[in-house]
């Protein structure tokens, strides 16, 4: 297999991608040509903020072809197009044959939350000391346990469960992603769990992961969340968390707990300020520049 690398400006990326596929490329991927430099551009913003620029100023296109002859012919035909004067071939290089399934699996290992609580991909055996195990494979929805925000939420659940279990029969996982927090709560005693997300893929992923772990829950859009819950979990991002402050606090039962993640250390003060009318937030954990904030609505700052 041969990889053809090209450089193109923002206005030509779609045209070049389409042309490569018409020239029998097996696949085409697009990357920021300035990634890792000061000129790197973010394409994905946070909900609640103005959208970032629609495309990178310069893009690297990686096209795979079955043979060198096919790649050479495609490059020649593409560069002959009248619109291709600003398209440049960067390299043409062989791609070694690999067992891609095995390679992908090798990048995901069991994740320790506590010595007794682990996240384990299905192709691994759980550690001997694991008493509670979430079986989870990488998928379309966020939340595999490899990110600090997920680990901190699960660690909070594991540490607080002995004291909270008698009273936290209802749990809300707001922005559930893969459903990993909802599943973690179920493994620690929660009985009635609502997991909500605006992304249909996340809802589907949550349902599948819950079934794979023998967990019963309800998954659906945000409208599914009704009433108040002794525990509300939200691992999203700072801006939507600020916008959702009255809604999330309104879902917490009297004396209940609110657990928020997806927050950078430098965002702690602005989150605390946003929630101050309803709840006094405190930093309960931190890892790799991310923090976990918790509070009990009804105790304003």
Structural write-up:
It is an enzyme of class 2 (transferase). Its EC number is 2.1.1.-. The protein has helices at 13-22, 68-79, 100-106, 148-164, 180-187, 200-212, 238-243, 245-250, 268-275, and strands at residues 2-9, 27-32, 58-65, 88-94, 111-114, 117-120, 132-135, 170-174, 192-196, 218-220, 229-235, 252-264, 282-287, 290-295. It is of the alpha/beta class and 301 residues long. The chain has 2 domains: 2-97, Alpha-Beta Plaits (2-Layer Sandwich); 104-295, 3-Layer(aba) Sandwich (Rossmann fold). The strands form 3 sheets. The chain has a 7-stranded mixed β-sheet, with helices on both faces. A hairpin with a 2-residue loop joins β13 and β14 (290-295).
Report the β-strand fraction as a percent range: 25-35%
How many alpha or pi helices? Answer: 9
Helix content: 25-40%
**What letter string, H or E per element, gives the SSE order?**
EHEEHEHEEEHEHEHEEHHEHEE
CATH class group of the largest domain: Alpha Beta
CATH topology of the largest domain: Rossmann fold
Rg computed from alpha carbons, rounded to a whole number of angstroms: 23 Å
Main β-sheet description: 7 strands, mixed
Strand order of the largest sheet: 10-9-8-11-12-14-13
Number of domains: 2
Average pLDDT, all residues: 90
Distance between the termini: 61 Å
The CATH homologous superfamily of the largest domain corresponds to Vaccinia Virus protein VP39
């Amino acid at each position: 297999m041969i990889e053809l690398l090209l450089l193109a400006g923002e206005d030509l990326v779609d045209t070049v991608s389409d042309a490569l596929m018409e020239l029998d490329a097996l696949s085409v991927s697009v990357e920021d040509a300035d990634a890792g430099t000061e000129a790197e551009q973010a394409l994905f913003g946070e909900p609640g903020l103005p959208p970032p620029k629609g495309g990178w100023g310069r893009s690297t296109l990686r096209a795979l072809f079955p043979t060198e002859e096919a790649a050479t012919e495609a490059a020649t035909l593409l560069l002959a197009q009248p619109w291709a004067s600003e398209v440049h071939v960067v390299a043409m290089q062989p791609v070694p044959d690999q067992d891609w399934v095995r390679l992908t699996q090798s990048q995901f290992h069991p994740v320790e939350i506590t010595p007794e609580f682990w996240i384990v991909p299905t192709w691994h055996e759980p550690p001997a000391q694991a008493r509670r195990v979430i079986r989870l494979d990488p998928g379309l929805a966020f939340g595999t346990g490899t990110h600090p925000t997920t680990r901190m939420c699960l660690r909070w659940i594991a540490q607080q469960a002995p004291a909270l279990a008698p009273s936290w029969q209802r749990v809300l996982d707001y922005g559930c992603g893969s459903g990993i927090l909802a599943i973690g709560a179920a493994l620690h005693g929660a009985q009635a769990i609502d997991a909500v997300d605006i992304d249909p893929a996340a809802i589907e992923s949550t349902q599948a992961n819950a079934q794979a772990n023998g967990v019963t829950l309800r998954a659906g859009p945000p409208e599914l969340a009704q009433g108040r819950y002794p525990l509300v979990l939200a691992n999203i991002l700072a801006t939507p968390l600020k916008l959702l402050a009255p809604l999330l606090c309104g879902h917490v039962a009297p004396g209940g707990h609110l657990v928020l993640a997806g927050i950078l250390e430098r965002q702690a003060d602005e989150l605390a300020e946003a929630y101050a009318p309803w709840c006094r937030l405190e930093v309960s954990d931190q890892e790799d520049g991310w923090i976990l904030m918790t509070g009990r609505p009804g105790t304003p700052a």
